[in-house]
Amino acid sequence: LRLLPQQRYLQTERAEVSALERKRNVLCCLITRILKVEKQLHIDNLVFRVIDACQKGELGPGVQFLSFCCHSVDVLSCVLHLLNQGYLRRQEGRPQVLEY
To answer: Where is the Cullin neddylation domain (predicted)?
Structure first.
């Protein structure tokens, strides 16, 4: 009987998927926290505020996390996810303005 070594690439894949899920969760939290305070915001302003918070490593007042690199595509993907889930909506007549 011969034992085969563990398949490390599977562990790496799982770790990468887990990291991406955590990143998406943080971005979704940032988006909802910002919109809860602002009530409505132009999508461009929201993207810039989320990216700025990611670079500073701030989730909100008094809440810190490790800063990470995020791009506008990441934020927009999370915005679409939250729109599909019903957490956000577009303003009537002004679809570029998002509301919580």
So the answer is: 19-96
Q: What is the token pair recorded at 90?
A: 């577009």
Q: What distance, in Å, lies between the first and last C-alpha atoms of the chain?
A: 60
Structural domain boundaries in the chain: 8-99
Give 8-99's CATH code, choosing from 3.20.20.370, 1.10.10.10, 3.30.70.100, 3.40.50.2300.
1.10.10.10
Going through 4-93 in order, the beta strands assigned E by DSSP cover 40-42, 58-60, 63-64, 89-91
Model confidence, pTM: 0.74
